[in-house]
Amino acid sequence: MSGNVKVTWVLPTERENARPLPLDEIAGTDVSYRVTGAPVWTPLPRVGPTDPQEAVVNDMDPGDWEFQCVVVDTKGNESTAEVRPAVIPFDPPNPVSNMTVTVS
What we know:
The chain contains no helices and six strands. By secondary structure, it is an all-beta fold. Strand 5 (63-73) and strand 6 form a beta hairpin. It has a four-stranded antiparallel beta sheet with strand order 3-2-5-6, with no helix packed on it. The chain has a two-stranded antiparallel ribbon with strand order 1-4. The chain is elongated, with a radius of gyration of 21 Å. The protein has a single domain (3-88), classed as Sandwich (Immunoglobulin-like). Helices cover 0% and strands 41% of the residues. The mean pLDDT is 94.
């Protein structure tokens, strides 16, 4: 069984120093994912500031995953990453029934 993951967010209206952050100063949001604890993130295409603020990954394998979003301004400055977990459940088959073991 595979799963689909949709990540949504709201763009900030201020910088980390509390100065206003107009929409025209945002280049976009970089979204990436990885198996929980893995060293390498897999990037998705950058989401522009006027696009729907969402990213979708389809057909992900079961397991524990992490997703991160980083906002990038037009000067290339990056926000602190926001990281959230996503668990895609395993869907194993039922066990056999009416099993017997005969010793002779």
